[in-house]
Design a protein that fits this description.
Number of strands: 23
Oligomer: single chain
Strand content: 15-25%
Radius of gyration: 21 Å
Largest sheet: 9 strands, mixed
Length: 480
């Protein structure tokens, strides 16, 4: 075997353990992982990873790329966001095909995103979305599943734009159960939020600093309860995005213990920041839904993350600019909500989860790469093992760097983590066997990203903690 690349003497970290080893890469895949006591295999390029952690490339299951909501469109495109992902050690991203206006179908929205994905620098998969139900939706979801798109997004809030009403949620869950897919759910109780927001608006408390009071924890947890009941009734698998409270996570944990296929995602900003940011000088940096929570809630959520109750950490990347956010800081109902984060997901989460003695490293790898690959049915992702795609990240566990929003690559002009000193920044990144980041900087691979197919949910859940290796023909067969 002729190796294209060898990463020598690194601490290879997977979700189920670690060891010092040499990682051998050939033809875009991991060909072997050799114990470090053996001689370094020959390769066209050898990188000395002594003292570095070698982990699987990140899988970010929740990104919004080139998204239009109402009058606002994010500033990024696939080339920009996927390059930023690679800078941050993420080698696979999942985007959403969300209908942008009344009359656009789930199938049309997804196919439009597939066309844009031709510019991707890293591998991509896609979630569909259902906003309005009609008699054609089951056939459209069948077509998406046939193309390897086996997950759909449902919003229980955002009345008038992306919200699906209760009947639509129930019918879509039933279809996803029939198609062996997974429903991604943005769970916030719309009636509570609308009423609470209006009451604060009537009192003149509707600026950005008032955001946490308009979207209470109860709204999130009430919606999670309702969706879990509908999922139990229909037999559907459900994945709750951006959970921000320990109570919401506990509801999902209880459902899973009761036999449901129910999963929790949180985001870096919900475990690294709290609601005090809205009292600071730049509250618009933190306009997102749900909002950041009080310190006690954040501590409880972090405890669930460190204890293994949270399945994945995703960025919920939404690349609006400060100019867009500042148009309506006096009325949060008019602001675009969402934060840029695909590039900072690794260091923020690593800093929260991994001690200086590397305690918690395997749990970090699980939420960063292994679990999102498995839950999204992505073969060949999430592990450093023979047969898996050669998507690899090298991290110097001793290196610390402050976040400088202006130096990031996400297409916007700020970061909600500005100034935070973080560990876990990548020193090298390998995507599909190509070294795209090293000490000489970023090496743009061009539009080499592939569109990935998702395995059926029941199959993916049968995989072990590392997911499943790639198969022949390759699991990334184009679905465009």
């Amino acid at each position: 075997m002729s190796a294209d690349l060898v990463l020598a003497h690194g601490l290879v970290a997977n979700a189920d353990g670690r060891r010092v080893a040499h990682v051998v890469v050939a033809d875009g895949r991991i060909a072997d992982v050799v114990d470090a006591g053996q001689p370094v295999p020959a390769g066209a390029r050898v990188i000395d990873a002594t003292g570095l952690v070698v982990m699987p490339g990140g899988v970010d299951g929740h990104c919004h790329i080139a998204q239009t909501t109402g009058p606002y469109t994010t500033l990024d495109d696939y080339a920009t966001t996927t390059a930023a992902a690679l800078h941050g050690g993420t080698t696979t991203v999942l985007d959403f095909g969300i209908p942008r206006h009344a009359g656009e179908t789930p199938l049309a929205a997804a196919l439009g995103k597939l066309d844009l994905a031709a510019a991707a620098r890293c591998d991509v998969a896609l979630h569909g979305s259902v906003v309005e139900w009609d008699e054609t939706v089951p056939e459209q979801l069948e077509e998406l599943a046939a193309r390897g798109i086996r997950s759909v997004k449902l919003y229980t809030t955002n009345r008038g734009t992306t919200m699906a009403d209760g009947d639509t949620v129930l019918r879509t869950l039933r279809e996803m159960a029939r198609l062996d897919g997974l429903a991604y759910v943005h769970a916030e109780h719309d009636e509570i939020i609308v009423d609470c927001t209006q009451r604060h608006a009537d009192a003149g408390e509707i600026g950005i600093s008032d955001l946490p009071r308009t979207r209470p924890e109860l709204a999130e947890e009430a919606s999670v309860r309702e969706v879990l009941a509908l999922a139990e009734y229909t037999g559907a698998g459900v994945y709750f995005v951006h959970q921000s409270t320990p109570g919401a996570v506990d509801l999902v944990t209880a459902a899973r213990l009761g036999g449901q296929a129910a999963f929790s995602e949180t985001c870096p900003h919900y475990v690294a920041l709290d609601s005090s940011v809205y009292a600071g000088p730049l509250p618009e940096f933190y306009a997102c839904c749900p909002p950041m929570r009080d310190p006690e809630t954040v501590a409880g959520l972090r405890e669930r993350l460190l204890g293994g109750a949270v399945d994945t950490v995703a960025s919920d990347h939404s690349c609006y600019s400060l100019d867009q956010k500042r148009e309506h800081t006096d009325d949060i109902r008019q602001m675009p909500h969402g934060l840029p984060g695909v590039e900072t997901r690794l260091p923020v989460t690593y800093t929260q989860m991994v001690g200086e003695d590397l305690e918690g490293l395997e749990d970090f790898v699980s939420v960063f790469a292994a679990a999102p690959a498995r839950l999204n049915g992505l073969r060949g992702k999430g592990a450093v093992a023979p047969g898996y795609d050669a998507d690899l990240v090298l991290v110097d566990p001793a290196a610390v760097r402050a976040v400088d929003g202006a130096a990031l690559h996400m297409g916007t002009d700020f970061s909600p983590f500005e100034g935070l000193r973080l560990r876990g920044w990548p020193t090298a990144v390998v995507a599909g066997g190509r070294v795209v980041l090293d000490r000489d900087g970023f090496h743009d691979p061009g539009p080499t990203g592939r569109v990935l197919e998702q395995a059926p949910l029941s199959e993916a859940l049968s995989w072990g903690p590392l997911g499943a290796p790639a198969t022949e023909p390759h699991a990334a067969r184009s679905i465009r």
